[in-house]
Amino acid sequence: MKRLKFKRKSRLREFIGEKFIAINALVALLAIILIFIFIFKEALPIFTNPEIRQEAGLDKMIFKQVYYEGRDPKYAWQPNSDVPKYSLLPLLIGTIKAAIIALLFATPLGVGAAIFSSEFAGKRTREFIKPIIEILAGIPSVVLGFFALMILATILQKTLGLTFRLNALNAGIALGLAVIPIIFTISEDAMTSVPSSLRDAATALGANRWEVSMTTILPAALPGIAASIVLGFGRAIGETMIVLMASGNAAIISASFLDSVRTFSATIAAELAEVVFGGAHYSVLFFIGSLLFVFTFLINLGGDMVLTRIKARIQGKI
Amino acid sequence: MSQSTFDIEKKVTTEKLRFKPKSKGYIPRGATFLAVVIIILMLAIILGNIIFGGAGTISVKFLTHPPEQGMEAGGIFPAIFGTVFLVLLMVIAVVPVGVLTAIYLHEYTSPTSKITKIIRVAINNLAGVPSIVFGLFGLGFFVGFIGDGIDSLFYNSEGPVWGQPAIIWASLTLALLTLPVVIVSTEEALRTIPSELKDASYALGGTKLQTITRIIIPQALPGILTGSILAISRGAGEVAPIMFTGVAYYLPYLPAKLNDQFMELGYHIYVMATQSPDVEATKPILFGTVLVLLVLTFMLNFVAIYLRSRMRRKRVRV
Question: How far is CA A3 from the centre of its chain?
Fold first, then answer.
């Protein structure tokens, strides 16, 4: 009798324990769903509230607008002027420009260092390079932003003879420093996970070490390296503090790398504290947040799927 | 699946190797080595500038006194206190959830089951959500939904009690941001536990819950610790998520209640660097603050890396 009682209690405890653990496991999933719901909910008035739609509807954000009678239509982001202007184009150009500069800077360095570490370096050198990258990855983005603002901007201004200290190039390089660890880690992983049978086969056919790298390892790892660049792009788009501090934050439409830029993320960070709760500007900032969320979500989902598939393909065949 | 490893091998043997003149590959070796050198150089410039710029400011007074004369003199004690308080609350929130999620994924479900795959996708994507989006979410969900909800249910006072930016909301926002870090570290630790240990527990009549609480969690403790430290280091450096959820530039008092606002090192750096009326006057304090934040995050990272490498060595031995 006693025994039976004990058993039943224990079974109940097991059941409760398992359910409790399962509930905790759902937090991550729940968080993603709630993030989407709550960001999008605050952006919704752009589509539903007629007053806000009048001021900052989707057409106002996408197309050229005539803001003053008799002047040419133009794209402009000036939400705080007498005639609020909510064109997203200058911000989109700024975001992409900063991210492209970051990738132009980070890709050769990140992939190059990954190739060196995986193909040319000895074991001891490799164990020196990896912590270096980890240290770089451990620098908080606000510190990188501070570095770009106080030090890098001065160096660039002096060497290039620039008029303005803060510009897309300055922000892009600092952003690149944040992206290098991502590109390095994923690229290196892609190269080291190429099965050694491939390497052995190429060597047996008479290729020397560097020929093996260039003709066998690199082509096999290329999709992984591409994925690393795409994921780095995602990080560059979403990064906030670096661009907020280093880019100058002027919403200009231009192709020059030496002009100031204003990105989506920096716009949210700089303006949200001063907007009217629930107003048009507030909704537009949450709409920009939704865009960022959806965009990085798709990039991460895609990059993730590519990486899993590549690994399965390369290693599953041996 | 058209390009299998077999295809790659075929391409290598038939096209490339036969006709290529032998090259030692000095150029790619040199170019990729240069990438490593540039990365090390950039890191040295960043760290060197911050260490030399900030070392002179660090003193006992700097670490233990509040700011004076509009941040141009005095110390940063409230910012250090706020940062520590913030990450402590964050750890209390994130570690149980992260550990239980990892245990659920590793012990209760098969890696191929649908729910595991969905949770994994959610975790990976949570890690990729831009930090500014977490900030928007914290404002919309924790402050606006939960906080306001508590106020309207339990408080009849005129001003907001919980429905305002506060340290509890900032730490919960950071907890979501660092959740993937804890999960990944714990999972790595769970993989190192030899299955003999678990089998022995079951053989002695232990239930699943008993095995988890008495065998698995104690065995995984180093990994859990590593994850917690990495999460703290990450959380201590993030600024964008707390910008709208509770941080303040200057407070004459230290936070004592969960619904108080707080000062924080990263935000202190951001505001001093970008909004100070006299940049030259605040420069020593600014560099000193950056150095403190950097030393704090690096120390945490080094401890985590050390613990992890010890754990990995142990796994090889088993």
Answer: 58
Quick one: DSSP state of residue A86? Answer: E
C-alpha span between B146 and B133 (Å, rounded): 18
Sequence-distant (6+) residues with CB within 8 A of A264 are A91, A92, A95, A237, A288, A291, A292
> Which chain B residues are within 8 Å of A27, Cβ to Cβ?
97, 101, 179
What pLDDT, on a 0 to 100 scale, did the predictor assign at position A13? 85
- Nearest by CB to B132, which of A17, A265, A297? A265
Distances in Å between the Cα of A265 and the Cα atoms of A7, A101, A117, A139, B242 are 56, 16, 33, 19, 14
Alpha-carbon distance B129 to nearest alpha carbon in chain A (angstroms): 6
Question: Any CB–CB contact under 8 A between A278 and chain B?
Answer: no
Bridge partner residues of A248 (DSSP): A261
* Global confidence as pTM: 0.88
Residue type, B56: G
Residue B128 forms contact with A (CB below 8 Å): yes
Share of chain B above pLDDT 70, in %: 90
Give the DSSP letter of residue B150. Answer: H
Distance between CA atoms of residues B120 and B135, nearest Å? 23
Nearest to A121 by CA among A209, A62, A49: A209
Does A8 have pLDDT greater than 50?
Answer: yes
Spatial separation of the C-alpha atoms in residues B220 and B315, rounded to whole Å = 12
Domain with CATH 1.10.3720.10 in chain A: 87-316
Q: Both tokens of residue B19?
A: 């006709």
Residue B8 to residue A216, Cβ atoms within 8 A: yes
A87-316 architecture in CATH? Orthogonal Bundle (1.10)
Q: Which domains does chain B have, with CATH numbers?
A: 55-317 (1.10.3720.10)
Tokens encoding A129: 């390079």
- Residues of B in Cβ contact (< 8 Å) with A147: 46, 49-50
The position carrying tokens 């020059």 is A256
Burial class (CB in 10 A: 0-12, 13-18, 19+), A59: exposed
Task: Dump pLDDT digits (tens) for A262-291.
Answer: 999 999 999 998 888 888 889 899 999 999
Give the number of other Cβ atoms within 10 Å of residue B277's Cβ.
Answer: 9
Q: What is the pLDDT of residues B12-59, one digit of tens each?
A: 555 555 555 566 678 888 889 999 999 999 999 999 999 999 988 888
- E strand segments, A14-75: none
DSSP letter string, B188-208: HHHHHS-HHHHHHHHHTT--H
